[in-house]
Amino acid sequence: MKKIALATLVALASSAALADSVVMKVKGKMNNASCTPTLSNGGAIDFGTIALDKLSPTETNQMGHKDMSLTINCPAATKVAWSIADNKEDSNAANDLSSSEFVIREAKDNGGDVFGAGTTYGVGTTAAGEKIGAYAISTRLNEITANGVPAQAIFAPSWVNSQGEYMWRHLSSGVIANGNAEIMTATRPGTISPLPITNVVYPFKVSLAIVNTNRLTTTDEAQLSGETTITLLYL
């Protein structure tokens, strides 16, 4: 999914006392770039068939991770960021349970990140409406490339400050927050300003966990059905 915005700022200038005219200034920026986001494997992550009788009835079941990558191509060098939001937020088990009851943990050799509410995504429900679990998405920070060379990830709130600027910060853990409240882009190593790109690749780890089966009353087959939307934002 792509979104292209034309931002227009209208400012009303104040006039001197008793003046008989005022000046309205209209400012904005048009961008003819049309970048294209693509996900590897057609955007599909398949954890295969999971046997319920092999899962723990008392502990969160950590199902490991699968690899995926987001690639953004632009016809000309363009400053472009992106956000990600859950289309199945109402099926996210992490939103209902405490971190002692449900959390996604990665193996230490994969970064050791821990994910809970706010950094996880719904993975569907059983036929009885029970939340199956959740998945998390993180970026392999040391493998990001932009314009064919190593790059770093930076992120910012999706709103601007009083000077009309995004407040960029380095992404330290690779964890990608759920929701359009944050945007992410790439920069040169050691800098903090968005980099104009013609191509950028963000390698992902998608990690899945399933609730302890004591929380599931169903014994029937259940389909995992997570879905997220990635939206581009031109800077």
What's the count of strands? 16
Q: Counting H and I runs of at least 4 residues, what is the number of helices? A: 0
Rg for CA atoms:
22 Å
Tell me, briefly, the overall form. elongated
Spans of at least 5 consecutive residues whose pLDDT stays below 50 are 1-17
Question: Quick one: biggest sheet?
Answer: 7 strands, antiparallel
Number of domains: 1
What sequence of helices (H) and strands (E) makes up the elements? EEEEEEEEEEEEEEEE
Residue-averaged pLDDT, rounded?
82
Share of helix among residues?
under 10%
Q: Determine the structural class based on helices, strands and strand pairing.
A: mainly beta
Query: Beta fraction of the residues?
Result: 35-45%
How many angstroms does the end-to-end distance come to?
17 Å
Keywords, please?
235 residues; mainly beta; 7-stranded antiparallel beta sheet; 5-stranded antiparallel beta sheet; 16 strands; 41% strand; disordered N terminus
Topology:
Elements: E1 7-12, E2 24-29, E3 36-39, E4 61-78, E5 80-86, E6 104-105, E7 114-115, E8 121-122, E9 133-139, E10 145-146, E11 149-150, E12 152-157, E13 169-170, E14 179-187, E15 197-210, E16 228-234
Kindly describe this structure.
The chain has 235 residues and is an all-beta fold. It has one domain. The protein contains no helices and 16 strands. It has strands at residues 7-12, 24-29, 36-39, 61-78, 80-86, 104-105, 114-115, 121-122, 133-139, 145-146, 149-150, 152-157, 169-170, 179-187, 197-210, 228-234. The strands form four sheets. Strands 3, 4, 8, 9, 10, 11 and 15 form a seven-stranded antiparallel sheet that branches. It has a five-stranded antiparallel sheet with strand order 13-12-14-5-16, with no helix packed on it. A hairpin with an 8-residue loop joins strand 6 and strand 7. The radius of gyration is 22 Å and the shape is elongated. The two termini are 17 Å apart.
